[in-house]
Amino acid sequence: MRVSLIIPTLNEREGIGYTLDSIHEVQEKETGELFPNEPIEWEVLVIDGGSTDGTVDIAKEKGARVVTERRRGYGRAYRTGFAHATGDFIATMDGDGTYPASEIPWMLKRLIHMKLDFISGDRLTLMERKAMTTEHRIGNWVLNSAMRVLFHEVLKGVPERVLTDSQSGMWVFRRSILPTLRLTQDGMPFSEEIKLEVLFHGFKFEEIPIHYAERWGQPKLSSWEDGIGNLRWLIGKRIKMSQEARGLAKLGVAASAPHTP
After folding, report:
1. CATH number, residue 17
2. Residue 100 CB neighbours (<10 A)
3. Using the 8-state DSSP alphabet, how is residue 64 labeled?
4. How many domains does the chain have?
5. For residue 51, how many other CB atoms are within 10 A of its CB?
6. Class of residue 194 by CB neighbours under 10 A (exposed 0-12, middle 13-18, buried 19+)
7. Among candidate residues 207, 93, 76, the one with its CA nearest the CA of residue 147
């Protein structure tokens, strides 16, 4: 079994070494305990946006395969990472020490055991107090509320806890579902887009609480600018869905039923 772990970076010198060390520790310990009869072959991909602080050198020294992606954007990094990934399963996390590498084998085990397609980590339930500013917390609440309101028809048939944290960037999923997903975003809305696409197509989705820590190094996220951009995307996505539905109705074509794996 092969797992591709994708980490987007841009000047993460302070955190990338710690992040990769924690991944190596997981590979040696917890993976063997959870998958004793089927060893995991790990592929660690660092998708770097042109770091100038030594991030790339540290990543290479720690054994990661580095792919340079000059086109900027959180979503762009992941889309490039997906194109380079060769694993049967894909896992994602940031390079700033916020996400717990130790959770990945457990998420993978649950994905396989429960026959799920996509698991997303909920940062908010178990988050450390200093991990997120008040501004950032408010922004997350606004975006999560907006998603539930704008896409209530999509979410009404899924378990109650799904999309408690629409902005989470820690996922484990089957690479086989990627060709079905319509992923277009290069920026921060990508995190919302991939989850909505998974739900739109009826794939088996679950959200589980994970520990979320204070980041290493200076934050790059602009709470207001990125938050407003995400909110605009959500509204635009909802309008586009309505327009597509009306267009199909005029043609006398029923909207496609959700995909059933």
Report:
1. 3.90.550.10
2. 18
3. P
4. 1
5. 21
6. buried
7. 207
Q: What is the pTM of this model?
A: 0.86
Q: Is 55 part of any domain?
A: yes
Tens-place pLDDT, residues 220-240: 555 567 778 888 988 988 888
Tell me the residue range of the domain where 222 lies.
2-250
Q: What are phi and psi of 62, to 5 degrees?
A: -85, 5
Coil, strand or helix at 209: strand
Largest CA distance in the chain: 59
- How many C-beta atoms lie closer than 10 Å to residue 28's C-beta? 9
Q: What is the pLDDT of residues 19-33, one digit of tens each?
A: 999 999 988 777 778
Using DSSP, state whether 4 is helix, strand or coil.
strand
Is 258 contained in some domain?
Answer: no
In a domain, 39, yes or no: yes
Scanning the structure block, which residue is given the tokens 């539905």?
245
Region class of 193: left (phi > 0), else alpha (psi between -120 and 50), else beta: alpha
The sign of the torsion formed by the CA atoms of 80, 85, 89, 95 equals: negative
CA distance 149 to 143: 10
